[in-house]
Structure formats: C-alpha cells, structure tokens
Amino acid sequence: MRRGEKDKWSTDELPTRVNRCVNRVIATLTGALAVVAMMIPMASAQAADVAPIASVVPVADTSADGIQRVAKTHKPQVEQQSFTAAPATAMPAEPSAPTAPTGPNGGTASGSGSEGELGDDAFGNGNSEAGNGDAAAPYSLAAEPRSRSAAPQSGDAGDGSDSASNAPAAPAPAPVPSAPSAPQPQASPQTSRAVTVSADLSGLATVGVTWKQQDMKDADKAPTYQLRYFRNNAWSQWITIPSIDDDFGRIGLSPSYYVGDATKVEAQLIPVAGQTITEAKLITVDSGYSAVGDAQGSAYRNGNKGDKASIDDPYAVGETSAVRSDNAASESDSPRPATAGWSANTPAASGAVSATLTSGKSASASASTTTPTVRTAAAVTATGRIHTREEWWVAGNPAMTWKPKRDGHWKGAIVHHTVDRNDYTQAEVPAMINGIYLFHNTQRGWGDIGYQLIVDRFGGIWEGRDEGVANQIVPASQVEGAQASGFNRDTFGIAMLGSYHLDVAPTDAQIESTAAAIAWEFRALRIPSPFGTFQFHGTQQRVTGHGDASHYIGGDLNHTLCPGQQVWDRMETIRARVLGYMIHPSAMAAVNVPNGTYYINSVAKDSSSIEIPMTANTANTANGSNAATPVYNTADGARTQLHSATGKPNQQFTFTRQPDGSYEIRNVASGKALDVADDRAWNNAEVRQWTPDNTAAQHWFIRDSGSGYYLQSALGDYVLDLSNGRTADGSTAALYSANDSAAQKFGLASADIAIPTNRNVRIESALRANLVLDIYGGSMANGGALQIYGWNGSGAQQYRFRLVGNNVVEIRNVRSGRVIDVPGNSKANGVKLQQYAANGSSAQHWMVRRAGSGGASAPVSFYGVASGKSFDLPGGSQRPGTRVQLYTGNNTVAQQWRIR
C-alpha cells in the first residue's frame, strides 16, 4: 500500500491482516528532551494542500464514565498464566460474573475440554540491545513498500502497529474522537484447536500474550488473538488484537493492551491450519496504580498531597499529579473567562528555555503542586511542559537492565502509534505508560521504554526513555531509543498513545503536541526545517513515519504500516505544524518605537491596514426618511479586520510602551484597547477591542521577523494573523501561531505625519544640513546607485511621493522617473539601495515613521514594507558619495531624514 492511499483492506480481512502487520508501535518511549521552547503550530496562511487544524482548544475528557482519578498505591507486579487447550468450535459462552479476586493477579486456567497446561517456562524475553541502532527490529512487518509522500524540499549531507482490530467508531468532530464502539465478535475457525486462559486482575492493568508453535519464523502463520475483560459488572465484547508485536523483532509476543480497572480477563489463541500452539502464556501487568474515589478530576489536576509522596512511597495513597492540564482552563468570576497560558523566553545562544505561567483577568493559574526535577524544569514546549518519568514511575518498578547509551546523533524524527485503546481518560495516562514500561522491561527484555516521547490524546507530552532530557542537546550524546531498527542512533521516536490504523484519527491536540515536541527537539538540535532530508541509509526525510519505505534496510526490518493510515494522512500537516513551532517570536528581537499613533499596515497587502470596523447608525433625517450613516464603533467586543487604507481614526492606533517592553495598542476612534478574547492565546483566538484594563491580554510585543513585524500577544507565542491568509476588505484578524507567512507580518507608519504628494521634495539627512539623497551621476538607468551628496538643486536630488497605502509611499526620482528600490527585494542588512522602473512591488514601497519631535520639521525614517528595515548610512557616515543601505531599525540619527 502506498503511503497516502486509503487502506483498501476489507473489514473481513482485518483480523488476519492486522494480525500479520499492524502492531509494531507499542515499542517504547524515551526521555529525549532538554531545553528550549518550540512555539506554535502552522498558521492560517499555509499551503493549500495542508489541511489546517482550526484550533488547539483544550481537549475535554469526554470519557465521563471512565476513571477520573488514580493513585500510586502499591508495588507493580507482572505475572503469567498458562493457556489450556480447548476445541475452537465456537466462541466461549458468556460466563457469569467472576468471583472476587483472591489475590493480586491470582489466575485460574480454565476452558472447556481442558487438556492440561501447555507449558510453564517464560519466553519472548529478547536479549538483543534494542538501543543499539542495528539490534532490535521494531515493526518488521512485511508490507508493500510505501512511496514517499512528497519530494524532499531541501537536503543536507548527514553522516552516514499498527493496531488492535477492535473496529472503533468513526471519530467525532474535533477536538476529541468519540470512544470506540464495542468491537464485534470474531468467528472462530472450525478446524483448528484454540487455547484459552482466564485470570484475575488487580490495579490498573495491562495484558499481553506469548506463544510458541511449530513455525516461529513465518508471521503469516501467527494465530488469532482475542480477549475480553470484565469491568463494571459486565463483560466487554471480544476484541481481536495482533498476536505478534513487530517492535519485539520476532514472532511469539503480542503487544501490550491496557484494560484499566477490569477485574478479570479471558483470552484465546486460535492457530491457523497446520499449526498447533505448543506453549502460551497470558502476561498480566499490575501497573501499581489504582482508581480511587469518585470525585471528578484527573491525574492532570493535582490533589493536596502532590506527587512527591507517591513517588517515594508506592504504598502511600495519594492522587497522582501528572502536572497541570496541558491546556487546562482556569475559571473565574469575570465576565471574560480567563485561561492560563504558557509564555516562554528562549535565549537563542543557549537554546535554554525560561518558562513562566501567565494568567488572564481574575484568573488563578492552576500550577502543579509538583516541582519538576532540576534536569527537566525547563523542558517546555509550545503546548505545555513535558511530563517527567517521575510522574508516571512507580517505586517498586523492576529496575532498568540497560544503561542509557549516550551516543546518538539525531538528525530526524520518526512518528509511531502505540496500538492501544483510544477511549482512555486523561487520568489513566500515567498508568498506561507505566504498564508499557513494565511490559517492555519484563517481556521484551529491553529494560526501558523504546520511544523518547509519548503524546496522549489530550495533548500531554511524556518523557519515555531515561536520561533523554538530560542529554538531549549534548553533542553526540543523545540517548538512543529502541524505536526503529538501524535508525536509533540517528533519529528519535515519538509515539501517539492509541491506535490509528482504522477509523479513529488522532485528536487536534495530539497532532499539535506531537509537532510541538518535534519542533522543540529540532530547535535544540539546530535542525533547520522539518521538510528537509538527511543522508543515512540513503535519503531520509526529517519527519516521517516508521513504515516509510526508506527505512527498509534489509529483510523485513521496519516493514510496517505504523503509525497507521490516519497519521500518514496527517504527516504533511505535522511537518507544517513543526515548522510553525520552530518559528519562535519570543526569541526574536523586540522592536522599540516611540509612543505615538500608527497605522498597522499589512505586508501581504500594503494598501490595506488593520481597523476596527465602522458600524451603521440609522437616524431620522429632516424629511422623516431613514438613512444609514457609518459611525465609529465604540462597543466592547468589536473585532479587528483588514481594510483598504482610508486614513480614518478607526485605522489609527496609539502605541504606549509598558515596563516589560510590550505595548498597549488603543484604537483612536474608540479609545478601546486591542484585546485577546477571554485572556487566552490559542489558534484563531478572537482579537477585538475592549475597555483598557492593563492585563496581558491587552499587551503586545513588536517582534522583528527579519521581513516585517510580528505583533505577538503577551499571553504567549501567538501573533496577529489574517485568517486563512485572506487580504480582502473585511478579512478577520485573529491570533495564530507564527508561520513566517506574509499574512502575519505588519509594518508601522506614523499616522500624524502629512506626506506631501503634490510637489517635489528633497530628502535631507538629519546628520547634516544640505546632505541629501542623490542618484549617482544623475543616472537615468535601472540600477542607478542611491547615495548622499551635497545639495545642488538638480533633478537627480529631487523626489515625488505617491501614496499607495496609509503613509506607505513610492519615492520617485524627478530626473529619471524611476523609484527607490531594494535589489531583488532583499531583506538582508547592508544591501545597497538603487533606482528602478516602478513595478508596484513591496520592494519599492516605504512606510514613513516619525523619528523625533518638532512638528512638520521633525525627522522621519523610511522602512521597507517587505523587509521592515530602514534607510541607513553605514556607520553614520557623512561623506558625500556614501551609498545608502538597508538596515534593521535602530532609531539612530543615521536613519533619520527631513523632508524639505
């Protein structure tokens, strides 16, 4: 099957086909993070072929009947129960409710026609070091090679599960798919003999099976594996799960499957014709967690006891913390509900992140009572901080049998899914991860989780493999995982918790956090783009799925459908989101402008500006008829939009600098401040006017992107954006994560300057009187150099302004008729300016900004629309003949001019 095509398997084929191939993801997680805050998903003006994710609204836990609170209450346990043989002429009859367990994992082997236990020796404990790049072979599924989904956009020369077939229901609308419907029972073969087992469970449980038969090499001859579990006084329907886990590297071991607070489980293995199950074990894993109480809440919302006690004492009953909800809303009595949001300041030199939690009006941020360890205190991504191993780890877990191997040279990311239930609650996530650790440690023999990171359906990002955070950005010291055979030294693995090979799609929050985590890694590793490639075993994409055909390096290694078709369908979106997160406005230089009144002009369409739309007012005229007259809108809640330049007060904004370097921005017509609705920054958050209240929701940083300014909300790394990249009159302006598109770039032009357009002018340097802009040699040709020279009254030193927007001008030389131009529309500092035939491009449009006081004679600066950079005299030179260059605005006299 080619990547990007829909799965053509029929429903009838799924149990068999999935058995053979789909399961290799529950491989492992790992702690692969260190410091840096990647920000924000791809914004609205993205490529047409990348389906935008509308928002990252906090994901509600819709599993109201599920577990709402968990605690680390006891020592984890892993036990085995032997299967017994039974005729497989029909599915087992519905048993009555089981008796209460007699002890932890106290199992009872049962089944009709019992022929005794099949064997009692444990097997399937792989002893190869999966952390070695060429050892364990996750996802060795024989599948048709996938074609690459997109041609590489750029490259550099480096050195060098799919899922249980329990037929979930179609996903509900975003943000969270509905829980899977009950799986339909699968008919059992009539000619084979099944083996069955039942076992009592304790704690929040995970199960799996090991088995032996005559042919232990051909995956096509693997048996059918089915299970059901008893929970809430009722049996689930039978679920067909793959009997082989390709993460393990050989047949005979299933993936683990989380059954939560079920008290009993039954399983059967049905061999194919010509095979006999000679030995089989049911592996039951008690995670050390229990569901506690009936109070609403979750492991993400901290109890009074915090997390410390339960980490140190597994038998101390206390609610797990698992940190604050990644996108949890804080409630307040304010008419404008406020939500805590992350803001981060990332020093570019070190890549370290200093993250703080900010809250909106009348909101009290629900910060975690758990203090992260020193090594992870700065591990924050755009969608929230990374949950540490300590948060899911239970004291009493079996010790890791491998020491972390710190010789990775990560160049890319591989995306997986864990082939697990999709209807888990937020509270259950830590128990699920610890169950995976126990299963990987004791049954695979890996000693730890294979993935560096796991992302749950609520957007939580979890550290997996040990020491990944501590060594993530140490050169040549990234900790290897066990997530893709042959690629563990050169890539890191990130797994989505759930099964995505059928109809259930990952949630928006899961996509966002997966992208944020990858971007966080890439930024720390100085990887420039998720769309690039690197060289290792051929050409590899920077971000791809496990089953990419480029990973087929011999035999069946990495032949898998992982991470499932639903994730493959979203791989381009993930890459686009990663790029968006890598563009990090908080790390960009802050722009300081004098307090004053400005037009906010769009780089995407510099003839248009941001405004508060006018409203119609119906008034009685003298003759008694009704007439609608546009008036300025002064109401709270009026939204911002883009409109063609009018120069009216509703397009003018007063900027007032705040102590932290941000600005309050008030509309001149209404006196109201630009405000983020509900004090909450997220994609498509409404930007409107509101009565000034001096909160972060009304403060904005001006950030220099190098090609225009971002207006970044003080609530976080979100910027003002023209929704869907539209520039027509009336297009909405809202918040969105930075994506480097022109739809998010703006320029500021002073609104209190009258530009003379009806006469010739000279443009004189503020450095010295009579030193004016001049075209070298009076050239009439394209490319004539712009320089300074003593005033001589010639046409080569005279100019005429033409307004193309709100104080956006074209500057035409009187002698040549050509306009001042940036060669190649460059955005680089130091490029020398020239004259060129007018072509209407942004390379020839300049915003006029007041540079000081003094009324009409006050100096001004000219800023390029496309670059956001200013006319500049290198080193403040006053020497006649000095070429005028483009340079980042610095408010020095070398960038100031007087219009005479």
TrEMBL record:
Ranges of compositional bias, category Gly residues: 104-116
CDD domains found in the cross-reference section: beta-trefoil_Ricin-like (cd00161), PGRP (cd06583)
Stored Pfam families: Amidase_2, RicinB_lectin_2
Gene Ontology MF terms in the entry: N-acetylmuramoyl-L-alanine amidase activity; zinc ion binding
Organism of origin: Bifidobacterium callitrichos
One BP term from GO: peptidoglycan catabolic process
Domain Peptidoglycan recognition protein family: 384-540
The family this protein is said to belong to: Belongs to the N-acetylmuramoyl-L-alanine amidase 2 family.
Alphabetical keyword list: Signal
Residue stretches of biased makeup (Low complexity): 84-103, 149-169
Residue spans of biased composition, Pro residues class: 170-183
Name of the protein described by the UniProt record: N-acetylmuramoyl-L-alanine amidase
